[in-house]
Amino acid sequence: MSDFPATAPKAIPIIGPAPLIVAKPISVAEPITVAEPIPVLKPPRERHRYDSLGGLLVAIPAGIEWLFGLLSLLVGLAVLASLPILQFLTLGYLLESAGRIARTGRFGEGFIGIRLAARFGGIVLFSWLLLLPVRIVADWAHSAEIIDPGSPAAEQWRIGLYALSAAIAMHILTACARGGKIRYFFWPFNFIWLIQRAFKGGYYAEARDNVWDMTVSLRIPYYFWLGLRGFAAALAWLALPVTLIAAGRGHFEGAGFLAFVGSLLLIVVVPYLPFLQARLAAENRFSAGFEVLAVRRDFRKAPWAFAIAFIVTALFAIPLYLFKIETVPREAAWLPGLVFMVFIYPARLLTGWALSRAKIRTEPRHWFFRWTGRFPMLPVAAFYVLIVFFSQYTNWTGVWSLYEQHAFLVPVPFLGV
Questions:
Q1: Neighbouring C-alpha atoms within 13 Å toward the C-beta of 322
Q2: How many domains are there within the chain?
């Protein structure tokens, strides 16, 4: 007999299709309920690297390095400004600084290469400090030779001088070989690192590539070409009015009238010139240095920014005229260039800032701002031209000083001066 029950199993119920649910049409009159959006949790604010005390200890040396780089940059450009031909590098850098601010609208973009300048400045400064003992010993050796020529003491001083010079020179070279950072000038065992690095191989190729990359990053041809074009554009605008003013010193009838006409033309030209040069640098087009109508349109968009930039440019150029009343000694020829950089560099940055202010606006400002912005520019331009006119009688270069427009060119723009 089977173990299973005799009763038949129950039938499995058949489930039919689900009833079709017809969506109710939404009436326009009925309000539509919108689900509340899921709140998006904002990520926690990332702590800035300078928020903590440790970050602050990092920020202070970084700030000092930046200030030292700025000072090194000003001194370096001042030295270049006092050298013929290389002067165009200084002018090109100033124009590029204004052009970058005009293109980007960021004031910090005008400080180009500050960190690299700090590295070069540190190398020069600490090399000079390390050479102080050499100069002292050289004086002592010279004194010993004068007191007792050919004596053993004088010979010993001379040998000591040679040995110290070789040691200091080797230390400076090895510090530079490691990268030229300040800490390497205080570390006396750089030569050990150099020997170990040389035995590892590939040091020559690495050093060669690094030096080449650094040289390329300086963009010397670009700055020279930009400075040359900016100089040519400014000289094209200044040549006629300045020549007419110079002709006023001639002993012929109508000379004074020519000087008067030249002064009026210069008053008209100088308010446009810094912005024309900045446009040339911003757009990297030589023709942009002659687009007067474009400058007028930009002025209508940012009149007071233009007025401030021009006033600073004109007034900051005056101290250099006063500085050159007397002849500067040859060994201090870079000092006028330093005065030039201290005053004109901020003026160039403000010029780029004024152009950037005009770029972010699409419509001209109210007529009140446009007209009030013009009022201070005219007397400042007249005062600047007055200083330029009398500089031919106070400057040691005479009439030639009329062509040394420091606000738009370099301190000594020609080779023969």
A1: 7
A2: 2
